[in-house]
Amino acid sequence: MPHAPQHADTAGQAPAAELDTALQGGPFHVALRAAIAARGLPLQRVQHHLSRYGVRVGVTSLSYWQQGARRPQRPESLRAVRALEEILHLPDESLIRLLAESDDGHGTASARESAGRSYRSLLQASGALERLLAELECSVDGGLHTLGHHERVRIGARRELSSRESQHIVRAHHDGVDRFVAVHHGDPGCAPERMTVHALENCRAGRVRRHHDTGVLVAELLFDTRLRAGDTFLFRYGVEDGTAGVCREYVRGFGTAGGQYALQVRFTENAIPVRCHRFTQHSAAAPRGGRQELPLSGRHRSVHLVEPRVRSGMVGIGWDWD
């Protein structure tokens, strides 16, 4: 049977050839599926390998990723993608590159243009955030659950994001928590080195790290007390920005479901938008939905939204200038 060995070799080479093609041209979910198939690993084994890297990802999420139903976005998910490159014996940055390049095929043009930040830029910002958090030896969660978050954003006379102020009510979910890590992502063209962080109530500023190319700023807010598991704490801080150009929206992302969130945007007297609206987004790669016009308070020149209980994803307020 001279043809049998040749047939077996061809079958064995097929997954590898498919993987090479997928890694070259993508998209991400096809390449991931081909890589898992080439290694012959069930998703439960992939999850087990990830846990050995200190990364927690559910089998359902892995399934969604390789089907293209969802895409990795949060820092923890991006750590998983980098770990997958090692687990599946792939070249460094091969999957991460495909994630960034696949931005052009997702969402409507109007959603991307109004966002001001593409999925690629948000992906790069997530990578920068991961490195800055590693420098501070902490995570975004930091051992705290958010019970309430009230955020006030000010738009300046040049229509720029002038500043924002945040008040948090948090609960510790383990003993010894004594700080919170604040993250600020400025608008395109911003200068993080010119931003300042102010500890306003029940906290003081600690270390600050900045990444110029992505506009990410990370700051420690120290509590001067160590919380025990179950303790609640209230604190307030602000970020002076004003370093970028015209701002058209403010967006807040949530990695997990949590407590109440309220966002208020206030405009200066000489920079009033013609209309405002709220919107939601499952992820940075997904199309926007939940659009609802918001009334602008004439006397106080402000607009707001309230989420009684936030869900994983993004929520924000956008506005149109004349």
Automatic annotation (TrEMBL):
This is XRE family transcriptional regulator.
